[in-house]
């Protein structure tokens, strides 16, 4: 694998691809919708909070990018994420795609930033993440487990067009022969298709595109900064056709809104049509302060659902365990019905029988 000179800053980034984003829609959430919840580039202020004082703050397409050196590259993935990975790498903290429900929002509070108003407008950029990753992958204590990429912010969000951190991250995994899975909602992942294919020659590479539902009216409400579900499924199809196994992480499944048989079946069917090798259902999580915002929205728009939501989320940010299991079982049955996972199981047996993850 070719090594690449350190870049990691927009000035060093060279040619920039044209942005491919969903048109910014007026939010249906009302006037107290989270600032930047789908309007990357709108109204970002150059606010540098005290924990990040002294860091370079670079405006990129209206987003304030706070450049830091990575203290660590590989971090534990909290079990609550609902993903079958213990380890994750996140080149970015914060995300200009700005989904209103994003469970990564609370992390901004620890940085002295407002999780609802500044998550999409202030993005922390770990400019040396690939160098740090190389060192950690080479450490004797590292056991070579599969690593998920893009936990605290989409690794192909708009500012990646300028910073181009992902090509060097992919090369670090490939050079170490370490399996990895890219999580994204963005078609920008296709920019790195050749690199992903090169990496797939030497290790297990997967992509998971996030499609919680296929109803674009709902997408316009809760994920107005993301491209349409249809576009994400086209990305899934393109990756699979190019030989990169791509699955769908169904997140978020919105209780009582997108958990009906019709919604789940439509999403799983469309995933199957895109050749998805797996589907992983993840029910909406409501950590503070996403919870306050979401319940406030429900109170205005769907007041009849509020008591049932309060019961479902009575014990914290995760929905009731029995409910989550029912949804997961339903999705598993649908995935079986549409044949999702069969080709993946064959592929995995061929590629690396020792390191399989039990997806759906
Ligand atoms: S794309 Fe992913 S990381 Fe970005 S805001 Fe949406 S849910 Fe969060």
Task: Outline the fold blueprint.
Blueprint: E1 56-60, E2 63-68, E3 74-76, E4 87-89, E5 92-93, E6 122-126, H1 129-138, E7 147-149, H2 160-163, H3 166-176, E8 180-184, H4 193-200, E9 205-210, H5 216-222, H6 229-241, E10 246-253, H7 261-273, E11 279-283, H8 290-301, H9 306-312, H10 321-337, H11 342-351
Parallel strand pairs: 2-6, 4-7, 7-8, 8-9, 9-10, 10-11
Antiparallel strand pairs: 1-2, 3-4, 5-6
Domain Radical SAM core: 89-260
InterPro entries: MJ0683-like (IPR040086), rSAM (IPR007197), rSAM_sf (IPR058240)
Organism: Thermobispora bispora (strain ATCC 19993 / DSM 43833 / CBS 139.67 / JCM 10125 / KCTC 9307 / NBRC 14880 / R51)
User: Which sequence of strands runs across the widest sheet?
Assistant: 3-4-7-8-9-10-11
Summed up, the domain count is 2
How much strand content do the residues show?
5-15%
Q: From the alpha carbons, calculate the radius of gyration and give it in angstroms.
A: 19 Å
How far apart the termini lie comes to 32 Å
Topology order in helix (H) and strand (E) letters: EEEEEEHEHHEHEHHEHEHHHH
Q: Return the average pLDDT rounded to an integer.
A: 85
The main sheet comes to: 7 strands, mixed
Uncertain spans:
1-7, 11-44, 346-360
Number of strands: 11
The kinds of small molecule bound in this structure are: iron/sulfur cluster
- How many helices in DSSP terms? 11
Helix content: 25-40%
- Choose one word for the global shape: globular
Structural class computed from helices and strand pairing: alpha/beta
- Assembly context of the chains: single chain
């Amino acid at each position: 694998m070719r090594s690449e000179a350190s870049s990691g800053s927009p000035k060093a980034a060279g040619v920039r691809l044209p942005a491919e984003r969903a048109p910014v829609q007026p939010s249906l959430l009302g006037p107290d919708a989270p600032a930047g919840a789908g309007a990357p580039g709108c109204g970002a202020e150059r606010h540098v909070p005290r924990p990040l004082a002294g860091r370079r703050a670079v405006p990129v397409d209206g987003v304030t990018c706070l450049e830091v050196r990575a203290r660590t590259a590989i971090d534990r993935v909290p079990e609550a994420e609902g993903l079958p990975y213990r380890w994750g790498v996140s080149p970015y903290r914060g995300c200009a795609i700005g989904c209103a429900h994003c469970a990564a929002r609370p992390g901004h509070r620890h940085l002295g930033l407002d999780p609802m108003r500044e998550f999409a407008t202030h993005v922390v950029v770990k400019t040396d993440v690939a160098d740090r990753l190389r060192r950690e992958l080479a450490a004797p204590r590292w056991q070579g487990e599969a690593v998920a990429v893009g936990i605290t912010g989409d690794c192909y969000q708009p500012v990646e067009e300028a910073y181009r951190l992902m090509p060097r991250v992919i090369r670090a995994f490939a050079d170490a022969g370490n399996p990895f899975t890219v999580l994204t909602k963005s078609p920008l992942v296709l920019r790195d298709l050749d690199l992903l294919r090169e990496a797939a020659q030497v290790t297990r590479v997967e992509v998971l595109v996030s499609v919680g539902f296929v109803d674009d009216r709902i997408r316009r409400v809760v994920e107005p900064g993301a491209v349409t579900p249809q576009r994400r499924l086209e990305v899934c199809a393109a990756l699979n056709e190019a030989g990169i196994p791509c699955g769908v992480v169904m997140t978020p499944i919105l209780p009582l809104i997108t958990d009906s048989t019709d919604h789940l079946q439509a999403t799983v069917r469309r995933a199957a049509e895109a050749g998805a090798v797996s589907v992983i259902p993840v029910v909406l999580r409501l950590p503070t302060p996403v919870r306050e915002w979401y319940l406030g929205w429900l109170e205005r728009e769907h007041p009849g659902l509020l008591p049932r939501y309060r019961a479902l989320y009575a014990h914290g940010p995760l929905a009731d365990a029995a409910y989550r299991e029912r949804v997961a079982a339903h999705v598993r049955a649908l995935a079986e019905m549409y044949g999702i996972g069969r080709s993946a199981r064959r592929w995995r047996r061929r590629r690396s029988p020792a390191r399989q993850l039990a997806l759906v």
